[in-house]
């Protein structure tokens, strides 16, 4: 599952439980509940940091749960259900009224990578952990909102090709060079500390959360449209 801890203007969302943090319906619903709590308690200068315990940041969708349904049709139904409800997690993060930071302390595979990429800033380990889109290896196609998110967040077409069409496993320093993550650090503790330092800089700007969310949506129009996130007019509060 996950926990949320409020430390001043910081919200720390931590994926807990087993090492894989597979995105099952129960974990997805737990994340949605946590994000709802964060939104309800947000102040004008809030920041969300998402991290995890264990080897994985997240090992993607809970395919073992889907396959446990028995028949192919039942497994497909379960997988489609996970895909649909996880879309709400991405939508919540893209529209959250505060800056968001993913502190990737372990492997982030498939939907776990997508979860990380839904944040504004990504910080990961250089000593352990990879980013990896494994759908080709599993024989799965990608949901439309996955592709819209990747096209919105990764500027290099070559990096996109290698991630999506080669299933390349990308470590921290390579991910920095490819423009996927902001920085890489040599330990779990240093990743979290770097996320906190960045968060302190962002909190210090004292931005209006609603304005921040609207500008983020306008920065990424393709994913916002796919997620059904309409823009809205915001009054100019500081002029």
From TrEMBL:
Reaction catalysed by this enzyme: a (3E)-enoyl-CoA = a 4-saturated (2E)-enoyl-CoA; a (3Z)-enoyl-CoA = a 4-saturated (2E)-enoyl-CoA
InterPro entries listed in its UniProt record: ClpP/crotonase-like_dom_sf, Enoyl-CoA_hydra/iso
GO molecular function: delta(3)-delta(2)-enoyl-CoA isomerase activity
UniProt GO BP: fatty acid beta-oxidation
Enzymatic class: isomerase
GO cellular component: a single term: peroxisome
Enzyme Commission number: 5.3.3.8
Pathway: Lipid metabolism; fatty acid beta-oxidation
Family that this chain belongs to: Belongs to the enoyl-CoA hydratase/isomerase family.
Record-given protein name: Delta(3)-Delta(2)-enoyl-CoA isomerase
């Amino acid at each position: 599952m996950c926990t949320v801890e409020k430390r001043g203007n910081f919200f720390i969302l931590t994926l807990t439980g087993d090492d894989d943090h597979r995105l099952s319906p129960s974990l997805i619903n737990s994340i949605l509940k946590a994000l709802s709590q964060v939104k309800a308690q947000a102040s004008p200068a809030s920041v969300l940091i998402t991290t995890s315990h264990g080897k994985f940041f997240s090992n993607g969708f809970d395919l073992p749960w889907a396959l446990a349904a028995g028949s192919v049709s039942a497994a497909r139904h379960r997988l489609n259900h996970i895909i649909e409800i996880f879309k709400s997690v991405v939508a919540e993060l893209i529209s959250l009224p505060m800056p968001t930071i993913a502190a990737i302390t372990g492997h982030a595979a498939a939907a776990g990578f997508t979860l990380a990429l839904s944040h504004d800033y990504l910080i990961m380990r250089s000593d352990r952990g990879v980013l990896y889109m494994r759908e080709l290896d599993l024989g799965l196609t990608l949901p439309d909102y996955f592709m819209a998110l990747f096209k919105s967040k990764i500027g290099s077409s070559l990096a996109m090709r290698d991630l999506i069409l080669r299933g390349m496993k990308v470590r921290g320093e390579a991910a920095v060079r490819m423009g996927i993550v902001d920085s890489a650090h040599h330990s779990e503790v240093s990743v979290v500390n770097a996320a906190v330092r960045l968060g302190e800089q962002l909190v210090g700007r004292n931005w209006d959360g609603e304005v921040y969310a609207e500008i983020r949506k306008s920065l990424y129009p393709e994913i916002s449209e796919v997620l059904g996130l309409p823009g809205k007019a915001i009054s100019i509060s500081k002029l």
